[in-house]
């Protein structure tokens, strides 16, 4: 068989897969069909001599041949040659095949692959890492990164297992302590995690694999470090391969939503430097219908042993409801709201975000309640507000942090307080402790502009502030912080949000705090959010709940217009 024929065979395999997805021969979700349409449109553009990109099918063939050198290390295929499944070949065709016409460098700077577990995710990561390191004519720095050392080691160990089984690669590299060096081009592959921050100093990555981005990475700390180090590289590439997760406040979920917008032709979002493959079910698909499984499991659902495994996992989930969450995320690749103890479903929270025009209109004629949570003088202090109008609620916040604490938290925890500050959701005060005068000033200004009914406060650490505000003419109401006192406002706040009766401003700091908030219950089903159990600060939420505890009794809690128009209204 000639070289040209072999290359054409790889191309045909990719195009047949694309055709089968687009025509429905292989069931696929809406997002994957959109990804295939994008691929076909890009190929049409690439055929034009004046296009920005072109498709290098020889490069795709090279990656396919590289993969065939290795053998599967696990599962029913252990010990057999690694033949790239058509879905993996399509992914690699995008990542390595599309090139810039001006200099031959790779088109894509980032790749986001979203699929259920056991669909050769780790194996593909390992193949890509070794391919870039061994076959490049440049000195590559390849980093396999996980949030924890154990996570980053998984992919690295998979790569070493593949390499050590190939006779022709022996003597071509040296390896020790999760650090591989290729002799001929001096390229390296290294496993890194957040736990080894010092290892990031002076590095110049060209290719980074971010493992389990959606499920494990609490911040973009590792991603930002990788991308900042790639600035001088000709063809930098960051690959994220992950399943769905529980944490909708993690950066992976935000990036997932961004990628969906790129694929969606109805959204005005374009980015030609990000490759996207989203293997997922459509909304409303029945998870018990086996024909839907391939949408999230492009490999596992194509052979009997894989199907048997999914059937067994589904039976366990149906028999033991506590296992259903893991089945949905890991096996069906479906995002599930945060863990069981989370205060709110972030999907429902995001759905109720409103624009500034809506906010200004709502505030006209609304009754305003405020809440303060002074918490600790050395971290976050918050002013919350709740507007009530015609049976609906609108909430927002402003928080304050001492500048010295801000610098420490930004450096240590990598929380983007700088973005919160720039968006005027957070204000910095001079020194090491919060100056409560900032909060007092903002409360007075808001009250003058929008009015004020009452101010709810937690008496802990706030007695002096409450006295000062009372002298200013505010009606101050102490809000008991025990679970029996906070249960009703906490539950009603959640009910109003889920019913679509509570709105909020688009506020990154507040969203972060909502994502942190964990609720606790007592034997009598009383409920409150707990600062002790939450993973980080929740002061903005606490301040809003202190305001809501009074706002829920407002005269406008009932929508008079709706009552008059209802069938039951009588004079």
Overall mean pLDDT: 90
Question: Roughly what fraction of the amino acids lie in strands?
Answer: 15-25%
What is the CATH-assigned architecture of the largest domain? 3-Layer(aba) Sandwich
Flag low-confidence runs. Answer: 562-566
Termini separation comes to 90 Å
What is the fourth-level CATH superfamily of the largest domain? P-loop containing nucleotide triphosphate hydrolases
Main sheet attributes: strand count, strand direction, barrel closure = 8 strands, mixed
CATH level 1 name of the largest domain: Alpha Beta
Q: Helical segment tally?
A: 22
From the spread of the alpha carbons, the general shape counts as: elongated
Q: Strand arrangement, largest sheet? A: 5-6-7-4-8-9-3-10
The total of beta strands comes to 20
SS content category:
alpha/beta
Return Rg in Å. 27 Å
DSSP helix fraction: 40-55%
> What name is given to the CATH topology of the largest domain?
Rossmann fold
- Domain module tally: 2
Descriptive notes:
The structure is a single chain. Helix content is 43%, strand content 17%. It contains 22 helices and 20 strands. Residues 562-566 have low confidence and may be disordered. β16 (454-457), α18 (463-471) and β17 form a beta-alpha-beta unit. The chain has 571 residues and is an alpha/beta fold. The termini are far apart. The chain has two domains: 3-286 and 292-296, P-loop containing nucleotide triphosphate hydrolases (Rossmann fold, 3-Layer(aba) Sandwich), CATH 3.40.50.300; 346-557, Nucleotidyltransferase, domain 5 (2-Layer Sandwich). It has an eight-stranded mixed sheet with strand order 5-6-7-4-8-9-3-10, with helices on both faces.
